C-alpha cells in the first residue's frame, strides 16, 4: 500500500518534543486552568524561538545568549525557565528548521498521495528526488545563518566531535527512505535498500550544501540541485531500469 506524502513528511517536529515540553502531570482541577497554562507556556516557547531566529538572522550564526535575550526583550533567565538550558533552546530551533525543510519538501511534492502521478513516466522517483534536493537547498539559500546555527551549534554544550545537526538530517533521511521505499514497492521491487539510500542521499546533499555556503563564488542553486540529482540518480537508476524499446 502506498503511503501518503502527508504521512511521510510530518512537520510537527515531534522527535524533539521530549526536549521542549515538561513531563505531563496529572491535574486534579476540573476548571481547565492547567490546560490554559500549558497552552500559554507552549505559545511563549514559540515566541522565544521566533526571537532566537530573529537574533540569528541579525547577528549571524555565532549569536550569543545576550543578543538572543535582547531580541526577545527579556532576560536569559526567562529562556532557561522555558528551555532548561542552551541545549534545550538549540533543540527547539532545530525542530523549527526541521519542520521548515519538511514543509518545503511536502509543498514541492505537490500532492497528498505518492501514486503514479508523482512518479516519472518510467515509474521512477527521479522527480521526487530532485524536488527534495532543491527544497533542502532552498532553505540553505534563504536562511544561511539559521542553517549555519543548526549545523555548527555555537550555543550547544556537547562533546567534541559530536554532530549537532544529526537529528535534523536523520529525520529528513527517514522521510526520503519512506519515499524511495514507496516508489520501489510501486515498481514491484524489493524495498530493503531504501533504508540506506535515504541517509546516503541526505548526507550527500548536506555535505554539498555545507561546501556551497563557504564558496566565494557559488554556483546558482538550480545548477547545484541539478548536479546533485544527476549524481544521486546515477546510482539509484539501476533500481528502475529503462524498458527495452
Automatic annotation (TrEMBL):
Record's keyword terms, sorted: DNA-binding
PROSITE patterns: HTH_TETR_2 (PS50977)
Highest taxon listed in the record's lineage: Bacteria
GO molecular function terms listed in the Swiss-Prot or TrEMBL record: DNA-binding transcription factor activity; transcription cis-regulatory region binding
Every HTH tetR-type domain range: 42-101
Protein biosynthesis as UniProt keyword: no
Signal peptide stretch: none
InterPro entries hit by this protein: Homeodomain-like_sf (IPR009057), HTH-type_TetR-like_transc_reg (IPR050109), HTH_TetR (IPR001647), Tet_transcr_reg_TetR-rel_C_sf (IPR036271), TetR_C_32 (IPR045823)
DNA-binding region, residues: 64-83
Matching PANTHER family: HTH-TYPE TRANSCRIPTIONAL REGULATOR PKSA, HTH-TYPE TRANSCRIPTIONAL REGULATOR RUTR
Name used for this protein in its record: Transcriptional regulator, TetR family
Organism whose genome encodes this protein: Pedococcus cremeus
